[in-house]
Task: inverse folding
């Protein structure tokens, strides 16, 4: 089974402040990990994915960055938040050759 | 044109109704199809996963894929208020996993 922990669950940050969202996963080793954003009334937008430690691919150029310091840890960061960064951030994992991904409970970010 | 199109709704039905949720896709490389259910302020949870054309049934849920018309459907029988959620379709293939926008479903008691 797959268990994905995300924190914080909810946060309100002022414009220009830094951001760090953390995701840790349980299960088999070397999972593919993903960060998605879901804006209000919109679908899921893939932000970053990682196939291994230190390997990050960015899908959308933006104000965010991602890092994978450990096999089961995936971090989403920003140095200076924008209002447009508000949304629901979801960490997800895919294991091995399975063609499905599983999501965490998400982190709600409101930039004010 | 989006690679996966889904009517965002909202869709409102009475309890006990049969619900039909639909998506179309444009990329012939898509081979795997999924339906996720997302309750308000929660992460999406995987409901159904299908590979080939045809039907797959799991309790009150049936997923249907028609590759010839690039059409995927989710049917919910005997809908319950607890089925009220947003349903997202997804298609995977050719190195891509693309989600539909999601359909908001409300089942009224």
Result:
């Amino acid at each position: 089974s797959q268990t994905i922990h995300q924190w914080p669950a909810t946060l309100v940050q002022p414009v220009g402040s830094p951001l760090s969202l953390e995701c840790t996963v349980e299960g088999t080793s070397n999972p593919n990990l993903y960060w998605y954003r879901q804006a209000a009334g919109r679908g899921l937008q893939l932000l970053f994915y990682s196939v291994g430690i230190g390997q990050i691919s960015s899908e959308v150029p933006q104000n965010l960055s991602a890092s994978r310091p450990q096999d089961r840890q995936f971090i989403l960061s920003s140095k200076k938040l924008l209002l447009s960064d508000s949304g629901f951030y979801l960490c997800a994992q895919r294991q091995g050759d399975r063609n499905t991904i599983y999501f965490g409970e998400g982190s709600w970010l409101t930039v004010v | 044109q989006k690679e996966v199109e889904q009517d965002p709704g909202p869709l409102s039905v009475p309890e006990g109704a049969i619900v039909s949720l639909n998506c179309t896709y444009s990329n012939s490389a898509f081979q795997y199809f999924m339906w996720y259910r997302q309750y308000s302020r929660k992460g999406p949870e995987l409901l159904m996963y299908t590979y080939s054309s045809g039907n797959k049934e799991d309790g009150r849920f049936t997923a249907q894929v028609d590759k010839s018309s690039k059409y995927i459907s989710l049917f919910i029988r005997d809908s319950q208020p607890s089925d009220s959620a947003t349903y997202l379709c997804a298609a995977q293939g050719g190195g891509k996993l693309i989600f539909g926008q999601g359909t908001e479903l409300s089942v009224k008691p």
In short: Chain B has no helices and eleven strands. The two ends of chain B are 37 Å apart (CA to CA). Chain B touches chain A at residues 6, 8, 32, 34, 36, 41-46, 49, 51, 88, 92, 97, 99-102 (CB under 8 Å). The first strand of chain B starts at residue 4 and ends at 6.
